[in-house]
């Protein structure tokens, strides 16, 4: 494993926390920077990465030596108590290096809670107590969003874990793009200004506490009874939202190769609410 000062493999970047901010009730923004991030090749849209977190009891951040298929066995080969916490995140914002300073990357963490209201999840807990200087690693994974050039409309459905991706996609779409975004958030105060093309209709769905995450967005999508067969669908969030959203778009006639769906997280079985 490389020492903390060794140059990291291309595609893997070491950085450190510079500041944190509670953006809205359910989002903790953590900003990271470091000389290696200056060469991060930001692609816009939903650019995502594997995030490695050095935990408080760990003496150093142990990152894989390579990208491609071999990084995972290398990560697993690190003894459990020295292994960093690993989770998937999206670039919320990226500011490239300028003559005034190095590059900065923002990560928006959903502050998710367990059944008793306690903060849960290694990454969410880390984000809420992160301090300037805390070490992280980024393994670049590129884009999932894959809209065909001939898409006549874009239908995007997400829960809060997909909001950073939705923000990035809307910022990156061409100005003449048309479509709909159905974005679910836990509270009304989690809604934010979105930089969307004029032809994209953004519908916020504020979660009803009686329903599990993703159910509101899925219900809103299933109200839709027609969609252009040349549409492109992008559905991300809790696993049931991703699969249910894909199923509905298929029913409306969108071919499967024009739908991207991804389960960003999976609700624990005991927390499932009967619908
Ligand atoms: C490509 C991709 C990009 C992603 N981008 C982001 C992003 O930018 N911001 C973001 O917040 N998440 C994002 N996610 C989702 C994130 O990876 C998961 O939520 C992850 O489980 C969080 O890790 P953790 O260590 O906090 O929780 P874990 O240790 O993985 O999970 C602990 C418990 O928390 C529950 N849980 C996990 N996530 C959530 C949640 N969002 N809401 C409620 N309960 C949850 C799990 O069911 C489990 O019971 C992304 C996922 C993917 C695949």
What would the keywords be for this entry?
single chain, Elongation Factor Tu (Ef-tu), domain 3, Rossmann fold, 7-stranded antiparallel beta sheet, 5 helices, binds flavin-adenine dinucleotide
Question: Would you write up a description of this structure?
Answer:
Helix content is 17%, strand content 31%. The chain is of the alpha/beta class and 275 residues long. It folds into 2 domains: 12-142, Elongation Factor Tu (Ef-tu), domain 3 (Beta Barrel); 154-273, Rossmann fold, CATH 3.40.50.80. It has a 7-stranded antiparallel beta sheet with strand order 4-3-7-1-2-6-5. A 5-stranded parallel beta sheet has the order 10-9-8-11-12, covered by helices on one side. Strand 8 (154-158), helix 3 and strand 9 (178-185) form a beta-alpha-beta unit. Helix 4 runs parallel beside helix 5 (239-251). It starts with 11 loop residues before the first strand and ends in a 10-residue tail after the last strand. Bound molecules: flavin-adenine dinucleotide (FAD). Flavin-adenine dinucleotide is lined by residues 48, 87-90, 108-110, 112, 120-124, 144, 161, 164, 213, 262, 264-268.
Question: Could you provide a short overview of the structure?
Answer:
The chain has 275 residues and is of the alpha/beta class. It has helices at 71-77, 122-129, 163-172, 215-222, 239-251; strands at 12-24, 27-33, 48-53, 85-90, 93-95, 104-110, 135-142, 154-158, 178-185, 199-206, 232-238, 259-265. The protein folds into two domains: 12-142, Translation factors (Elongation Factor Tu (Ef-tu), domain 3); 154-273, Rossmann fold.
């Amino acid at each position: 494993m490389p020492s903390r000062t060794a140059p990291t493999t291309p595609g893997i970047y070491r950085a450190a926390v510079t500041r944190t901010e509670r953006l809205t009730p359910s989002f903790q923004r953590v900003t990271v920077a470091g000389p290696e991030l200056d060469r991060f090749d930001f692609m816009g849209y939903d650019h995502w990465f594997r995030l490695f977190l050095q935990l408080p009891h760990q003496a150093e951040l142990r990152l894989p030596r390579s990208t491609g298929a071999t990084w995972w066995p290398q990560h697993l080969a690190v003894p459990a108590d020295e292994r960093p916490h690993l989770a998937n995140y999206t670039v919320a914002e990226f500011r490239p290096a300028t003559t005034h300073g190095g590059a900065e990357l923002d990560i928006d963490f959903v502050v998710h809670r367990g059944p008793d209201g306690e903060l849960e999840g290694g990454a969410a807990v880390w984000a809420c107590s992160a301090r300037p200087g805390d070490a992280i690693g980024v393994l670049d994974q590129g884009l999932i969003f894959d809209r065909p050039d001939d898409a006549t409309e874009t239908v995007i459905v997400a829960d809060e874990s997909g909001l950073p991706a939705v923000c990035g996609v809307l910022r990156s779409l061409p100005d003449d793009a048309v479509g709909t975004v159905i974005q679910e958030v836990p509270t009304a105060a989690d809604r934010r200004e979105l930089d969307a093309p004029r032809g994209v209709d953004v519908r916020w769905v504020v979660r009803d506490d009686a329903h599990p995450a993703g159910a509101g967005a899925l219900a809103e999508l299933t109200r839709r009874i027609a969609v252009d067969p040349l549409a492109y669908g992008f559905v991300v969030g809790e696993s049931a939202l991703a699969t249910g959203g894909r199923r509905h778009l298929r029913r409306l006639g969108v071919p499967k190769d024009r739908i991207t769906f991804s389960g960003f997280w999976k609700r624990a079985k005991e927390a499932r609410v009967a619908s």
